[in-house]
UniProtKB/TrEMBL annotation:
The protein's role, per its UniProt record: Mitochondrial fatty acid beta-oxidation enzyme that catalyzes the third step of the beta-oxidation cycle for medium and short-chain 3-hydroxy fatty acyl-CoAs (C4 to C10). Plays a role in the control of insulin secretion by inhibiting the activation of glutamate dehydrogenase 1 (GLUD1), an enzyme that has an important role in regulating amino acid-induced insulin secretion. Plays a role in the maintenance of normal spermatogenesis through the reduction of fatty acid accumulation in the testes.
Binding sites annotated in the UniProt record for CoA: S67, K74, S143
Gene: hadh
Protein name listed in UniProt: Hydroxyacyl-coenzyme A dehydrogenase, mitochondrial
GO MF, one annotated term: NAD+ binding
Amino acid sequence: MAFFHQICRGFSSSAVRAVVIKHVTIIGGGQMGSGIAQVAASTGHSVTLVDTSEDILKKSVKTIEGSLRRVVKKKFADKPEAGEEYVQKVLKNVSTSSDAGSAAQGTDLVLEAIVENLQVKQDLFSHLDKLAPAHTIFASNTSSLSISDIASSTSRLDRFGGLHFFNPVPMMKLVEVCGTSATSQETFDSLMNFSKELGKTPVSCKDTPGFIVNRLLVPYILEAYHLHERGHGSKEDVDIAMKLGAGYPMGPFELSDYIGLDTIKFILDGWRVMDPNNPSFAPSELLNKLVAEGKLGKKTGEGFYKYK
Ligand SMILES: CC(=O)CC(=O)SCCNC(=O)CCNC(=O)[C@H](O)C(C)(C)COP(=O)(O)OP(=O)(O)OC[C@H]1O[C@@H](n2cnc3c(N)ncnc32)[C@H](O)[C@@H]1OP(=O)(O)O
Ligand SMILES: NC(=O)C1=CN([C@@H]2O[C@H](COP(=O)(O)OP(=O)(O)OC[C@H]3O[C@@H](n4cnc5c(N)ncnc54)[C@H](O)[C@@H]3O)[C@@H](O)[C@H]2O)C=CC1
């Protein structure tokens, strides 16, 4: 198996030795970045969480604290004091910064979870590539973009991979680990080991749109929008049907609000440019309207449903 990866990925002369990831810099303190920071800090990693402003970062830390309290309510049900101690201990592992460049300077892994836009991700990594130490691995949590395209903005193609988590990160056990044709075996192994250290189950993916889960999940979600737009089922009935008839924990409209409608639109718009005639990526007027109105789902208080 190891030999197979070596053939597939090749080795560049700048290949590094497998990195033991102790310090992680996470760029983007939204839903995903704060969840990943929480899990990394809970498993003993030292984390720097970066976003564009101190106000956003304060909100991110509040989210982490709230989520940790949900975890300890169950984990320490009979020992609330030990639970509180645990929350404070984990929070001590998280520091914040609004300066990505300085945060990248003493870190083993830079993982981005910012907006799903290729140019913005490339600009970020191109900037950090000049500042991060040589051994630092770069990874993207992208839902739909090509890891090779993002990595092309840097000079560390062998130390670049995909590390795709699922929402809500503290609950979802899967991580998709993606190596490109240029990712070194050492980098791939480091990302697999890191995922396991976080208590997740990693699977290996090719650098193809949506990796495994989203390539299957997003067309299913879009099919639900089209079914509803044709007048063949209310949102509520579609959601109930898929929960009770197919055993899904959330129906497609609830799940869309949970993921974020802007993220789903970014994914579909990007894939349509790549493959314009594929009916699996056909536009949804309803989705476009909600996004244009700023109704992005749970995070804005309204999407397909209202949360206020
Ligand atoms: C877009 C992409 O690129 C990829 C993606 O992420 S696709 C999306 C993948 N995610 C999914 O498919 C999620 C599907 N939904 C689910 O699995 C479940 O509904 C769920 C895990 C989110 C919630 O579980 P649930 O039993 O339905 O509801 P809920 O009662 O809210 O939660 C149960 C418990 O889970 C835990 N929990 C849920 N969310 C949590 C969070 N964010 N942090 C900590 N604990 C949490 C808590 O212990 C919670 O109990 P309390 O409410 O008492 O605190
Ligand atoms: N929402 C989901 O269910 C999932 C999303 N993803 C991917 O993770 C990434 C983030 O998604 P979410 O957390 O949902 O988005 P979000 O909108 O909740 O958070 C994004 C955060 O990034 C910050 N940001 C934007 N540009 C930045 C920059 N240049 N530097 C620093 N911070 C910046 C924003 O201020 C915001 O706080 C996207 O690529 C998305 O496709 C992956 C798995 C699941």
